[in-house]
Amino acid sequence: RDLPDDPAVEWDTQLLATLVLEHIEAKNISLVVTFDAGGVSGHANHISLYNAVRYNVCKLLWAGCRVLVLESVNLFRKYISFLDVLISCLLPRDALFILTEEETEQAKRAMRCHRSQLLWFRQLYLLFSRYLVLNSLRLL
């Protein structure tokens, strides 16, 4: 209720920061991967998560937990699928993950489980998104 799944709703940073930190400490997590300040698609929930993790970053680093943020790319790069490998290899980043064909299919199957989320533009996403093929990340 306090954290609705809504691309237009900004979540409370301190509440989310507290929840995330409690989970990280309870599970003894040493690596967090989250969205960057752009939220990949400008999704307010994604941006809120980044802000919450950033709010806690000093505590996380002190506790030995590293944070990687997923790079938001422009619309052209977002939808050129595997062709973005060439661009991504030339640009600075701390990590580049290239998914196998099996991993890409698994991600597509997972998205298809959420039928209510599969609007027309997400069908294009399944076909052309570079995020289903590769992901570039940087340390926070």
Automatic annotation (TrEMBL):
<dbReference type="GO" id="GO:0006506">
    <property type="term" value="P:GPI anchor biosynthetic process"/>
</dbReference>
<dbReference type="GO" id="GO:0016020">
    <property type="term" value="C:membrane"/>
</dbReference>
<comment type="similarity">
    <text>Belongs to the PIGL family.</text>
</comment>
<dbReference type="GO" id="GO:0000225">
    <property type="term" value="F:N-acetylglucosaminylphosphatidylinositol deacetylase activity"/>
</dbReference>
<protein>
    <recommendedName>
        <fullName>N-acetylglucosaminylphosphatidylinositol deacetylase</fullName>
        <ecNumber>3.5.1.89</ecNumber>
    </recommendedName>
</protein>
<dbReference type="InterPro" id="IPR003737">
    <property type="entry name" value="GlcNAc_PI_deacetylase-related"/>
</dbReference>
<dbReference type="InterPro" id="IPR024078">
    <property type="entry name" value="LmbE-like_dom_sf"/>
</dbReference>
<dbReference type="GO" id="GO:0005783">
    <property type="term" value="C:endoplasmic reticulum"/>
</dbReference>
